[in-house]
Amino acid sequence: MIGIVGYGAYIPKYRITVEEIAKTWRKDAEGISSSLNVKEKAVAGFDEDSCTIAVEAARKAVKMAGIDAQKIGAVYVGSESHPYAVKPTASVVADAINAGPELTAADLEFACKAGTAGIQMCMGLVASSMPDWIDYGLAIGSDTAQGRPGDALEYTAASGGAAFIIGKNEKELIASIDQTFSYTTDTPDFWRRQHAEFPRHAGRFTGEPAYFRHVVSAAEGLMAKAKMKPVDFDFAVFHQPNGKFPLRVSKMLGIDPKRAKQGLLTPEIGNTYSGATMIGLASVLDAAKPGQKILAVSYGSGAGSDAFALTVKKGIEKKRPCKKVLEMVKEKEYISYAEYAKFRRKLKTL
Amino acid sequence: MTNGNLPLIWRKFPERYLLQGNRCETCGTCFFPARQVCPNCRRKGKLVQMEMPRQGKIITFTEVFTGPYGFEFETPYFIAIIELSNKARLLSQVVDSPREKIKIGAKVEKVFRKISDIDPEGPIAYGYKFKVVG
Amino acid sequence: MRSVSIIGVGCTSFGEHWQKSLRELVAEAGIQAVLTSGLVGKDIEAIYGGCMASGRFIAQEHIGALLADQLGLNPIPSTRVEAACASGGVALRSGFLSVASGAYDIVAVGGVEKMTEVSTSEAAIALGGAGDQETELFHGASFPALYALMARKHMHDFGTTEEQMALCSVQAHKNGMLNPNSQFHKEISVEEVMHSGYVASPLKLLDCSPITDGAAAVILCETEKARKMGIPAVEIIGAGQASDSLALSGRKSLTEVAATKKAAEIAYKQANLGPKDIDVVELHDCFSIANIMAIEDLGFFKKGEGGKALEQGKTALNSEISVNPSGGLKCGHPVGATGVKQAVEIFEQLLGKAGKRQVKDAKIGLAHNVGGSGATAVVHIMRRL
Q: Of A216, A309, A341, C196, which sits 20 to 30 A from B71 (CA to CA)?
């Protein structure tokens, strides 16, 4: 049996409201906020990037797992805002949590689903029939998402991340991963070219043929493979580019949208890209009880979805994190648009 | 400053990522950064590598409004001398903490941050900073 | 050890010397020192030159050779001495030891810094090298920040106030008005200091010494030889130097400069004198808090009472102890030159040549130079020969 032995989420403390951003562009804040179902977003500090976020999340995951970091055999960091184009974030994370040097590591990129791809890779390594390969794998999704000033994405593109340690010792599991299924096509709905500072997106094209098609196909494929029905799931977590899509996709799948609420954080912290589904899953695990079933479906533009079926294990009762995701959401300090521009180095002189 | 002192940045990873210092087993004093000689015991000292605790308290602090090269745009920022729970002392930035909570005696905890990112095409130096807890 | 005296001094004006390079500044101070000594260049057997960061400021190293060259004194040995802001004071002690030991009879000691060729933030990096590069400057701890850390602790432990610190600057500017070589000739008020804006709280712009170009030089001579020459001279009767941890976090106390206490203890013992015997002192006040700590560490006032002493005017010109008649580092702080400039000032004070800023009946003087945040301190005690 393979599954999660520990997890950690990290949300930077700074927030900018949709209202503050809209004020800068003289846009209708209320209209934007209600159409996106997003009130505010988390902003990384001046000295934070995807790497520091990944390290903080990983450190919490190791602490919760209660394992010796030296036993981690793989580190994968998924992000679309890796600080370097060439030079891994994963090696920094490995050294910063003292997991190295005897491990494999790599940075992943698949828009917002690179982190869940990392979970699948760790699952494969942990479950490998090759003898004594790895005991634990660490998969992280972390982003300081870039939104072009004035673009619609600026209201949601947020910073945050979560880390999951995948293991195979049944006694250590807080949740088993019972099945996974992925759905991938070449659908260019959102991209950032090499050397381009900000991503571009195809507007409404990002909805139907992109997000909904892939999330629904992956979730249905998973349920078929796992012989499960929508009603079997106590919780559902979806990638959350805004506060509305996950609720709509939940309905489309025949899952009561109420079951998607615990894992829906975008209204309060924005879209944390590679972190989004994973922080959502962390929040669900914060609240879940042994025996409960969880559906988690990520989405990455370009495009693909990874779906997972999980069962919460008894081990979770002894391993609750020191701080829940919803508590982190509440720890915040509001900043102005000017401070936001400074923190995220959007002022050209910085 | 070629390549942002790359070998130095690299050499310091254990110290700056993990707060690796050392301790003299003879007198029990903890040192950060690690020392080559225990100033108390000299040749009778026995230094062993150890990770410093992540918790400490502020001994004194200042808010910097004029930063040296590389820090000009980070101002204002707080610098403090912190005494770790094992009595070793270090200097660090204090971040993510409400101004009114940054005071002498305040409890702090280590966080992982970018320390120096001077050249947009150069290496990034990560390391420790602290934040007020409670 | 043989007795050593200062027989000649030279000093450029302190300020922004846009028209002069380091080499012109050292030549000006050096030539003046030789002339006042009544000697000729070829009488000088060796040179010790204090310079902190010429590599950073003007990309020029090998200052020892440059000094001898510029003064036309090749091929005598010429050595650069570096101890951050105490480079000048340590150069003076090095020259003193070389004469006291009998190695030479006559040596020249110089100090110089050319600081205005670079931007302020580059200068901050150069000066930051006086602290611990790897654990202080790396984290953005500028020099004002290090002294601010000490100031905050001093305020916390002893109730020292920002206004008391401001008084240091007010007094320094007042004395500087009387010194033709001073960088500033402007009186300032406590309010002006208080409103000059934080550089690193609680230190404000006017609590800090400026960026300055300047050079100073003295000629040292074995005392018996000086006596025979019959020229006005000042004898160095105590020379103490001490060190401490490079980084502030390594200090036992953050409200004192332990190296100052140690260097002073050595110098007082050699001179067989105590703080009460000192009539005039040039002390290291790179920041206002440094002034307060120094008057305590040198033994003029009890620890924690420096702020009050300032408030009561006990350190003003011709009061209980005349502190920094030159204007101190507010007269300008070309880091490598400062320690030598202090000796020049004490020389002039003890010989009654200090003009409007003359301390009445000054018989014993003390010069106190600090490197970094207190990792080096050097104290010289002098009397009229």
A: C196
